[in-house]
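Record type: monomer structure entry
Structure origin: computed from sequence
Chain ID: A
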Amino acid sequence: MSAATERARLSGTQRELLNKVLVTGIALFILIAFIMPLGYMFTTGIKSTEQMNDPNASPFWPQSPKTIEYEGEQLEVLQVPTEDGVKELAAVKKTRTVTTFIDPDNPEAGLIEWEGNWRQLEPVYYADPKWENFKTAWDELNFPLLFRQIRHRIEANRSNQLHIYKFRAEKIV
């Protein structure tokens, strides 16, 4: 054999290591594929109906659009491009060509006019998990009664299986 083919071959320890990495990688991929639905169920469980219906919100973590209260009204906060970069501003008056904003961090600075269509701006979101969904589900579904019913069905099924087994055993004899 030539020296080039000797170098091209993997040594026994390298082959062993490669096999371990491949098997572990495949097992990890399969594990993640099986666990992904559980993660989706969990994140869906801590979302409100509004969060589920919002097409702009992250599908991975519950988020709500950021709003502020200004002169008794709830104003939506949007990402607005300005000379100083993108700023988070609350829309006071929305029109097709000019939108009036207020800075939520500095409302005393007054109103800011921005030329452009406000519908092209991205809303600002914040993480907003609804942990109370689990308490609501517990209270409304009456889990103790549900578990009792499941236990009775399992016991009834087990009893039916015993009767079927006895019946078959008697026929054989």
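Annotation 1: The chain has five helices and eight strands.
Annotation 2: The first strand starts at residue 63 and ends at 65.
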